[in-house]
Amino acid sequence: MTDFPRVPALSVHDLRKTYDNGVEALKGISLDVQPGDFYALLGPNGAGKSTLIGIISSLVNKTSGSVKVFGVDIDSHRDAAMRLIGLVPQELNFNMFEKPLDICVNYAGFYGIPREVALPRAEAVLKDAFLWDKHDKMSRTLSGGMKRRLMIARALMTEPRLLILDEPTAGVDIEIRRGMWETLKRINAAGTTIILTTHYLEEAESLCRNLAIINHGRIVAEGPMKALLAKLDVEGFLFDIESEIPQQLPHIEGTTLIALDNHTIDLEMPRAMDLNRVFEAFDAAGIRVRSMRTKSNRLEELFVRMVADSVETQA
């Protein structure tokens, strides 16, 4: 692949978009995504994520601001910038009566890639997506997960340096979703920068190193995933209990205890609190802990707080 100078994979500066009906979808968005990153773009419905992606991929006209892809301005060098981007939309938008091999080769042809180059490249991306055994079958016969992987394989036909994924696992079951996570990790490890939008916050926490949370057209939080999660002043744990939980749970000042069922206790506690206090209270109440695990909804807690804080600020 072509070498690029060490500039951001994506640089957005003071991006604004006001639609003809007066809706101000973006209110001065600025962010940088570094080469090789796996970056999450999160926000509630109507926050401005789709508008931002639409502008980056030249599907939506911006009102003002600038967007550069590996230093290439999308206004002055649109074609060059678009050749650096692969977009995987949420909707399945290929011909269901075409074969995966033809879908990939024809897509490459739209970008001027000769058939003799496209054919071996299509074989490679379909093998990477574990779809080569289906390359000559009608795409409508593929499973839901296979169709999602085909969308990604097609986008990779142009060897994009920046891959934008808009809700790539929407509507698929957890087994397929986790299989797609491994596919995306391999693509990222091979050097492709990935921007992911998703409503599955577990997905973002598992895959992404950096993130931005958008609400009402503004960025309300941005930075490394670990650093932002570390700002949370509470931690959550789940305890598996040996015998049935007593009706009256012990009172531990500063914590929230909830019995999820007869054998599971949900705990939220300040990060600074010593867990020994919890175990002492459990022992005094005759509660015997069989095992414990950290709750996996830390990003959800951060997301809810940041969105709520931004609403209060604007009120």
Automatic annotation (TrEMBL):
Molecular function GO terms recorded: ATP binding; ATP hydrolysis activity
What is the species listed in this Swiss-Prot or TrEMBL entry? Solilutibacter silvestris
Positions in coiled-coil regions: none
Query: What are the ABC transporter domain coordinates in residue numbering?
Result: 10-241
- The keyword Plastid belongs to this UniProt entry's keyword annotation: no
Keyword vocabulary terms for this entry: ATP-binding, Nucleotide-binding, Transport
Query: What name is this protein filed under?
Result: ABC-type multidrug transport system ATPase component
Entry annotated with the keyword Transport: yes
